[in-house]
Write a structure and sequence with these properties.
The chain is α/β, with parallel strands linked by helices. It has 16 helices and 15 strands. Helix 11 links the parallel strand 11 and strand 12. Bound molecules: NADP nicotinamide-adenine-dinucleotide phosphate.
Length: 474
Amino acid sequence: MIALEETIEVSRPVEHCFRYISDFRTTLEWDPTVLEADKTTDGSIDVGTRFALRCKAGPVTVSLEYVIEELTPFHCIVLSGKGRFFDVRDIITLEDMGRGVTRITYIAQFSYRFGLEHLARQQTAGLKKMGRASVQGLARALADDNPTPTASRDTAKRDEHLPGALSCFTRFGYRRGRSRWAPMSTDMTGKHVVLTGANSGLGAAAAVSLLEAGATLTVVIRNPANTDAMQAHFTRTAGRPADFVELADLSLLSDVNELSDRLLAEDRPIDVLINNAGALFNDFAVTSEGIEQSVALLLLSPWRMTERLLPLLEHHDSPARVINVVSGGMYTQRLDCDHLIMPEGTYNGAIAYARAKRALTVLTELWAEEWQTKRVVVNSMHPGWADTPGVQSALPGFRRITQTVLRSSEEGADTIVWLARAREAADISGKLFLDREPRTTHLRKSTKEPPGARANLLPWLRATYAALSIEGNS
Ligand SMILES: NC(=O)c1ccc[n+]([C@@H]2O[C@H](COP(=O)([O-])OP(=O)(O)OC[C@H]3O[C@@H](n4cnc5c(N)ncnc54)[C@H](OP(=O)(O)O)[C@@H]3O)[C@@H](O)[C@H]2O)c1
């Protein structure tokens, strides 16, 4: 057997270190030899949780199946890994040194098969160097001091031309983006997140990640019949259900008002509000409150809910975050309040959708300017093209053509989770993100709004809301 031992001290509470390390998927963020790391068992991280890792070992790649053997909260994590040529036992001990400092001792014991131990002994120096690099990577990840996000040179260049920008929407764009990401070790325990549209697609994927990260989660869904299946899914995958479930049809502003009233009455401060619920309506329809449904659901609803919930977002030590889920489709449209509501005769679902998402992107920028003195940051994100139930039902033709390049829901939702969780994502406001990088909001000059259109948006929202046939509006 060959044993390696390294010790580091990090300025993070022992609970944060314990939670971060015991989810061994994080090895992808801190161990330079790890190429892929997946959790292969459902539920919360516990004794028996398994992980599949693919690692570089010199010129070859090896697969390792890890299982957690011991988990003594905040003190010790023991994992055993099995590979074709060797087994490894990782013993990680954590010690609370006081003043928020944790000492981590990492022991890795390698047992080789096929008489390879002799060969490995000759490589001990290299093995030790590798072990040190991994543990130093862990120290860097736990430092959680990533710089304020900026667009990489590669991204900025791709955004100069439509084909380059569109290539980023695919799963290949996601993979390219991922190769540049910094670790995300921020702990969400005690953070209250409100997430709309959590029972499907991107919302469901984001909910699972936020629950895994320890957040207190309020989900907003519209159909009570979906509650049990949604909560069973969260419990199976993340190990626990959402903490609170709220029901609201978000295309109805009366429902938005009632939901906001309930949340305000509960008086539970909100750290993150995620306006994710949405749909592309191919057929024209007007809600019972008398407005075309795309503009109601995709624009009026997040505007009204966010403004109503500001008192719950405002009083925090660290800035609260609002995340607006928009769409790459908005790159095709420019803001023009006179044409946000499409009449039946000229209605086109994709255009109505794109106009509403463009307006929500501009609203994000306006809010960021207006809230400069508040402790609330607001950003929009678009997920690229993700294979969700929403895309499957609204865009079957598009899906057929693009199926091989579509992202998974988890890949599409990643930037939602990053904006909600990463410490450095609170350093920036009023930007549009894709794959954890701020992106241009225009790919063509023709979509830049005419002077005055931005200034019209908030008055237009107030006037349009006031004209709805709902209680309280006369
Ligand atoms: N997937 C993509 O490629 C893509 C691309 C760009 C933008 N987006 C945006 O990403 C967000 C999530 O979409 P998705 O692809 O994950 O679609 P999805 O699977 O259809 O999920 C949409 C969610 O929104 C909810 N929702 C729809 N109408 C609602 C209403 N009136 N009241 C309350 N909730 C409502 C849905 O609830 P029900 O299940 O009850 O309908 C569902 O939970 C949307 O804002 C969408 O515009 C997605």
